[in-house]
Amino acid sequence: xxxxxxxxxxxxxxxxxxxxxQHRIHAPAGKARGMGGAAGAVDHGTVADALGVSAxxxxxxxxxxxxxxxxxxxxxxxDWGLPARIEAQLDLIGLGSVNPARPFATLSGGERTxxxxxxxxxxxxxxxxLDEPTNDLDVAGRRALGAWVADRAEAVLVITHDRELLxxxxxxxxxxxxxxxxxxxxxxxxxxxxxxxxxxxxxxxQHAAAVARRExxxxxxxxxxxxxxxxxxxxxxxxxxxSSIERSAxxxxxxxxxxxxxxxxxxxxxxxxxxxxxxxxxxxEVARIxxxxxxxxxxxxxxxxxxxxxxxxxxxxxxxxxxxxxxxVRGPERIxxxxxxxxxxxTLLRVLAGELEPTEGTVTxxxxxxxxxxxxxxxxxxxxxxxxxDAFRAMNPDLDLTRxxxxxxxxxxxxxxxxxxxxxLSGGERxxAALACTVGAHHPPKLLFLDEPTNxxxxxxxxxxxxxxxxxxxxxxxxxxDGDFLDAIGVDRRVELG
Length: 498
What we know:
Blueprint: E1 17-20, H1 47-51, H2 54-64, H3 70-76, H4 82-92, H5 109-123, E2 127-131, H6 139-151, E3 155-159, H7 163-166, E4 171-176, E5 179-184, H8 187-240, H9 244-286, E6 303-313, E7 320-330, E8 334-338, H10 345-353, E9 360-365, E10 372-375, H11 388-395, H12 401-409, H13 427-437, E11 447-451, H14 459-471, E12 475-479, H15 483-488, E13 493-496
Parallel strand pairs: 1-2, 2-3, 8-12, 8-13, 10-11, 11-12
Antiparallel strand pairs: 4-5, 6-7, 6-9
């Protein structure tokens, strides 16, 4: 965008760019420009203000009402078809029914993101830069975003961890500790190539480890043979009556030979170790978490929970989110709660988990509260002001320090990482730590509630969560907009709200 100068290389911009910032709900409106420009949405005024077109629309209305003010004509310029363009862009992003005069603050987070995308298209920029555009978008919003990207004649550069959106791109640039890698094609080809690279890295590590072991064995064998030659030479010298001067010279030559051999051996061993270290570093770039969990002990015939005639309405506004909902969970079922933003998915999850009381209907739980676990987006169960190890031991008091450390190491919290303050963990680390404390516990829960566990996670974090949740054998009720995630964890049923 031109906001930062590179420490190496250069960026050449041949046209205008406009960008969608990641934290866009409160982002100031900006204009597209050759050196980059924000095209975020504002959190005040109307939808037209957020689109950056309110002044031109007002000028058009005044001209249509008979104004001959040159200033109005200057604002409109040649853009007499602006209302039609606005309608077309809002329609393309799935907001065709939204009136530009509507207060922007009344829109949901996902709708605000869609307005920001429409604003991008109205800038007339040559290239769009999108930073995590799927944040706050529900399933319908993500589909609309995919269609919007596919319809663009302009260049689009996107930062995203949404695999469905990644399937629509022409190239993927992956940033790793070892540098940037460019893959032709979308997500599926990228995933296949990355898996091939992981297998190749594993083979390289095994080969390098075998070479290192062989070099060490051969170095030891060479030293032993040299020692045997020296011993035979000393015995021969004594038997033949060799002079002390000649014996001293022979011993000196033998020492030099042994020294050279020791140096050669050390160099070869060091080279083998370096190769092994390099191979392991390549494997670390593509390594996946692989865990084996203790069984929850949940029988397939066990009634986990049953909801009858469930409904919820906000006490202050009286707004009803859902009603007359029946749901039965038996055994280790996996159920996803889906629906558009604002339909009450998280509220339903909290009601089922006992975090909220329903305003109508009943929930019967067949499990003790200690056999259930609730994991929200922020992983608040970890608490504050303590380390990952402290949080784990608090929820697993029957494990001693050594066993607790071993358990956390399986979730990549090894050594000092287990002592990291939970308040300083990234989003992915928090979710991973929370899952370690619950499903990775000495006594895993029989029922787990998950609320958008992959929100704001990178691909490694998402895949780590998938590995852990897939290995869990208890009942699961999850809210998520990520279809790939739901497929990966093997969801059995979906409850659609709205």
